[in-house]
Design brief:
Elements lengths: L13 E11 L2 E11 L6 H7 L7 E3 L2 H8 L19 E5 L1 H5 L2 E3 L9
Parallel strand pairs: 1-5, 2-4
Antiparallel strand pairs: 1-2, 1-3
Length: 114
């Protein structure tokens, strides 16, 4: 659950992001990092229809895959983790709400702050 955060001045329209690291359970080499606005409901069943994976195969990736591909541990992954994907194995999906936001906030590889 996101805590209430107040941004002032030019940052008052900031949108906080949440991240989901997902994979196809039948073909584990297919991976996606979903970056969505904190208020966006991410429906995995609907997302599964959009992504090239079998019906019902979309799952949250395990801690080992997160460390191996994005150099992160659970709770610290964010958009900037993609820099660690040297082999470009992970595809990124950005929520339109983040793209349309004047400012987007991502925690700095430590979910204690943004």
């Amino acid at each position: 659950m996101i805590q209430k955060v107040k941004f002032d001045g030019e940052y008052q329209n900031n949108v906080c992001a949440k991240q989901l690291f997902l994979y196809d359970r039948k073909k584990k080499e297919k991976m996606w990092l979903v970056c969505a606005a904190h208020f966006t409901d991410v429906d995995l069943k609907k997302l599964n229809q959009y992504l090239p994976c079998s019906s019902g195969s979309l799952r949250g990736a395990d801690a080992d895959s997160l460390a191996k591909y994005l150099g992160s541990r659970q709770g610290t992954c964010n958009y900037f983790s993609m820099i660690n994907d040297k082999d470009k194995k992970v595809k990124i999906l950005l929520d339109k709400a983040l793209l349309d936001a004047e400012y987007a906030s991502f925690h700095p590889m430590d979910n204690a702050a943004s």
